[in-house]
Amino acid sequence: QIQQIKNLVGYMEAGRRVQERVVVGSAGAHKTWQTWQAAGYQISVEPNEGKEVFVDDALLAQLSRTASRTFEPRRTLMLLTGDGNANGGRATFPESVEIALRNRWRVE
Question: Is residue 76 a contact partner of residue 101, using CB atoms and an 8 Å limit?
Fold first, then answer.
């Protein structure tokens, strides 16, 4: 798993200048947090296992905060998630992507 994370980070960043790195997950993934942290990622962990409401909401809050700003030169938002659901009527990843696009972000 550690090598997979290193490979994923290398693929995502591909030598680009990265301004902000965030990863959010559940306590069940505790073995991977050191690898993410060593790669320079800000870590937020859901302390309880089970339904991961915190995971989505924490990532969406950070994403919306960043995506609502405009930068020159334009920045690229890279979002990796397996979750595109309605999120119980709360903010969603597609909505956050729309905010980023309105603020001239490139989105991958």
Answer: no
- Whether the upstream peptide bond of residue 73 has omega within 30° of 0, thus cis, is yes
**Cβ partners under 8 Å of residue 99, min gap 6:** 64, 67, 68
The one-letter code for the residue type at 85 is: N
Q: Where are the alpha helices (DSSP H) in 1-108?
A: 2-13, 33-38, 53-67, 93-102
Distance of CA 16 to the CA centre of its chain: 16
84 to each of 14, 91, 92, 95, how far by Cα in Å?
25, 11, 7, 10
The pTM of the full predicted model, rounded to 2 decimals, is: 0.78
| CA 62 remoteness from chain centre | 8
What are the structure tokens assigned to 96, written together?
A: 């956050």
What's the pLDDT at 19? 92
Q: What confidence tens digit (pLDDT) does each residue in 9-68 have?
A: 999 999 899 999 998 887 766 778 889 999 999 998 887 766 667 788 888 889 889 999
Q: Using the 8-state DSSP alphabet, how is residue 71 labeled? A: -
